[in-house]
């Protein structure tokens, strides 16, 4: 991975010096996580940007020829796999680190020579428009991507604003240069995914249109406006629709050559040029969820000219501002890991509105965001754990807008539900629980969202948690658990409901609703109803109250848990660790049990059928590559051996995070894996959002300064730091010795100093 040019670095360093931190962009590496399981993308985007302009390296279909799920497509959740030898093209929307996918809108590819409108195959790239490439010519930086496309001999460069993707292609001399616009391409694609596509060629350098797709987002419509710096000499299209019984009277026209008014399910277009050696052709693709007029407004507002380098600098300055909210001291590897994590943590959720505040709502109508910026891409099963608590600390204004976006979702929902997993004006209902309530409760309790708005948030949380039709919730309300047989994830869903209910109880208590506090506090104890004391694990339980007889505590398949086994999920009570420890026999039994999680062996057969768990993300039987266990290393803090949390955290950090393409031990999951790293490297972690406390760990940095939005700073100082000095000898908050391994969130958000003294042996008193 290469960093910016010397001139750019010097420019950034000079600009940053006046703000505080030196150039931090050089330490953020978008290629990290692009190999194996990370599922990140390397392309150009700005913080929380609506456009993610990035290369796609294959075109695998979601289904095989017999209509069954194609497991190979899982590698392409972000469109790019580092080990692939070819690039198909550059599309404008991507998820970061997910375990399921969609998007990949509006793929663009420059070509030279005979026109080919099919993508071809990796084995025979010359059979289509894709091209071979080498990592030797590939550069990935925040807001900038560059690669040499070997087959056409074109240098491709990408940058972006919030709503506009900008391409710069340096062509060889050619009388037959083309730019292909593939409106059939997509991620997790299949032949019927495109519901409809419309294109208008407005003139010889401007094209507008939209595409509606039916995928993970059931009714997702994206509009675009595409501008060229060089007028195209000719253009053309191909309609790959299967034969339809009726097409009106459009057949009287030649719609293949230079026809400006196109529509169909499956369209590809080409724009033709003659180019001189070294000639640069630029493209600007603006997106909108509301209309082509909205896309044009976005284009003109954010990228009115053709100064690619200025837009690149502008984008990297935005990244400098976000990365500079936390300045650490440490080695280069420390900074590479930390600022790459900061980069990934600031990719999602994504802005989802035009420059005038209009956005497409869940009801498929256009709305005006009043007093907030609307966001989408809420992977809440993942991000409620650490990403949103991180935003409360260093991005409170942005997180407040995200809360308002969730409440707007609730208002527009026909089901009157807060988002579960939502993107692009769609609820996709992925995963379990209703974890938006954790985000809302934590935001109100930390003061990120004013208490005056808390009543609206509480009402939405309570309504969401009372929908009997939702995912076994009726049974949960009647019996105190989701019965085995009614749900394939009955145990984990029960545990997730209990945690969310506890968050609602804390919010109700904050706002003075004693009745709701009592109701949801009782519900929060429902985790006990799926705990089988005879075996010491959470276990599926039938509607008649009996526990399942045939049960494997190690298997991740068909045992009542989503993406995990009983070993990990039996520890998934972050809102009541003390109660869990008591249930499991107290410190004398719980601590050895927790120890063995990290040291035992989990054979591959126990997770062979679970996509989201691989050997790369496992330490013993502890699955760091998947979120349900992210709090587990901190549970020692509720025992008489808290120093073991310190040792475990410092062991996990270097094993699961590296500044390399394969440097993530699992899906980054919209920034959750990265948020775990950021908190843990600083020395504390939000085990239970809405608790008002961080659990102390062991800092991996040599020091850090958090620049808070309220104008204050919170400083972490570390004395006697070293790879062997993983044990905290003392921790002082604003000079006062901490006698418990916990840190008040409010005091951190108010600024101050956390001072660690480290040593090589545990401090057991």
TrEMBL record:
<dbReference type="GO" id="GO:0005829">
    <property type="term" value="C:cytosol"/>
</dbReference>
<dbReference type="GO" id="GO:0005975">
    <property type="term" value="P:carbohydrate metabolic process"/>
</dbReference>
<dbReference type="Pfam" id="PF07971">
    <property type="entry name" value="Glyco_hydro_92"/>
</dbReference>
<dbReference type="InterPro" id="IPR041371">
    <property type="entry name" value="GH92_N"/>
</dbReference>
<feature type="domain" description="Glycosyl hydrolase family 92 N-terminal">
    <location>
        <begin position="28"/>
        <end position="288"/>
    </location>
</feature>
<dbReference type="GO" id="GO:0006516">
    <property type="term" value="P:glycoprotein catabolic process"/>
</dbReference>
<dbReference type="InterPro" id="IPR014718">
    <property type="entry name" value="GH-type_carb-bd"/>
</dbReference>
<feature type="domain" description="Glycosyl hydrolase family 92">
    <location>
        <begin position="295"/>
        <end position="760"/>
    </location>
</feature>
<dbReference type="InterPro" id="IPR012939">
    <property type="entry name" value="Glyco_hydro_92"/>
</dbReference>
<dbReference type="GO" id="GO:0030246">
    <property type="term" value="F:carbohydrate binding"/>
</dbReference>
<protein>
    <submittedName>
        <fullName>Glycoside hydrolase family 92 protein</fullName>
    </submittedName>
</protein>
<dbReference type="GO" id="GO:0000224">
    <property type="term" value="F:peptide-N4-(N-acetyl-beta-glucosaminyl)asparagine amidase activity"/>
</dbReference>
<dbReference type="InterPro" id="IPR008928">
    <property type="entry name" value="6-hairpin_glycosidase_sf"/>
</dbReference>
<keyword id="KW-0732">Signal</keyword>
<dbReference type="InterPro" id="IPR050883">
    <property type="entry name" value="PNGase"/>
</dbReference>
<keyword id="KW-0378">Hydrolase</keyword>
<comment type="subunit">
    <text>Monomer.</text>
</comment>
<keyword id="KW-0106">Calcium</keyword>
<dbReference type="InterPro" id="IPR005887">
    <property type="entry name" value="GH92_a_mannosidase_put"/>
</dbReference>
<dbReference type="Pfam" id="PF17678">
    <property type="entry name" value="Glyco_hydro_92N"/>
</dbReference>
<feature type="signal peptide">
    <location>
        <begin position="1"/>
        <end position="18"/>
    </location>
</feature>
